[in-house]
Amino acid sequence: MENNQQENARKINRIPIVAVLLSGAFLAILNQTLLATAIPPIMVDFHLTESTAQWLTTIFMLVNGIMIPVSAFLIETFTARKLLLTAMSVFAIGTLICGIAPSFLILMVGRVIQASGAGIMLPLMMTIFLLIFPIEKRGSAMGIVGLVISFAPAIGPTLAGWVVEHLPWRAMFFIILPLAVIDIIFAYFIMKNVTEQTNPKVDILSILLSTFGFGGLLYGFSSAGNYGWSSSVVIGSLCIGTIALTAFILRQFKLVQPILEFRVFRYKTFTITTAIGMIAFMGLIGAETILPIYMQNMAGFSALESGMMIMPGAMLMGIMSPITGRIFDRVGARWLVIIGLSIMTITTFLFTNLSTETSLTYLTVVFAVRMLGISMVMMPATTAGLNQLPVRLIAHGTAMNNTMRQIAASIGTAILVTVMTAAAIDSSPDADPSQMIPGVNMAFLVATGLSLCALVLAFFIKRSTPAEDRAAAELAERDNQ
């Protein structure tokens, strides 16, 4: 059945489907960091602190993380065409609400609705790509996906920087909205059904437990910047999150059709590469949240300059993703990931000595080289892990990989912003920049330590090519049968 499903999927004309999926995913992922550069003016408009304002970024990633586990259920329940149209329509409605939001609360509601649609897009795209491309071409195909995953969050701050420099920050959403509508129209005529519906039963308790688990952890880490680590709010949130998440994981092992299939972690390479991807994405999103705050609020740069600082790295990452995909198809992931993480670790450490005198050139060059390293990590690691899974677990592996990455990015960003606030000599609105910058340096020092941990893990990725991965996956499938 699975082989017939794959064969039928690969007979479909891939180009229009790929174009529609990439466009939708680009818009969805773009919105993760679209507000990063715009946070300072939004803070002024709504009278917010850094710890409160960063929720505009982290709530988007959190809801993404909550929706992604549900995506495996949705992909097996609804046709690909219906699911794509629904996800993009929900995303467009959320975008409209953000554009007209009269208050911070309504803006947050819009971000939640946006993320509800966006959270389905990426796992749907990756699942379809893994079905319509044979394993020996997945590296190149996922390299294209990597271009979207890497380029979109990188270009977001640049676009936002230009917009807030020349227009009200709300204009960002009215630029995105018509693009989303156009993609919906094209998807209506182009999208084909390539997934198989198995109609699994949804477990409401699992969804509630995952929401309280991930949400409790994120709220606890995020609130530490405002309330302090000893606050009952922080401790209570972390305890609730930990208990709920533990209950959620234990429940998944008891279900015949789990919301999130934790058994994929039985495959060692998948586990290692997922952990590496979590740290890499945390480093990407964390830096894109902290650097604009540092540049605009502490170093005297404009919003446009903080956005333009990211542009060369975005271009380099976009160019490199398909190239690393082709290299992956030939040599596998191990040395790509090791070299990429080495670059990422060194360049992250170079951000630990920032000051009010740090030049725009220094920031731009270091960030660009850092993005080069991340481009060598993200999709090669993800693809190497998914290649180890049998076909029946690919949708669950994709959902798990994306969930862990989004949760890591949202909680990781919250932790880094909290560290930045807590380590500052003075983080009050009237503080001198020289007293706030030590917090930024400490946040990047923590990020350096995490990157170093990922580098150590990379040496445990086995040496293999995609052809060998296919043989291993087929053998694993026969063993399970």
From TrEMBL:
Superkingdom: Bacteria
Record-given protein name: DHA2 family efflux MFS transporter permease subunit
InterPro entries: EmrB-like, MFS, MFS_dom, MFS_trans_sf
Locations listed in the record: Cell membrane
Keyword Transmembrane appears in the UniProt entry: yes
Domain Major facilitator superfamily (MFS) profile: 17-466
Bilayer topology: Multi-pass membrane protein
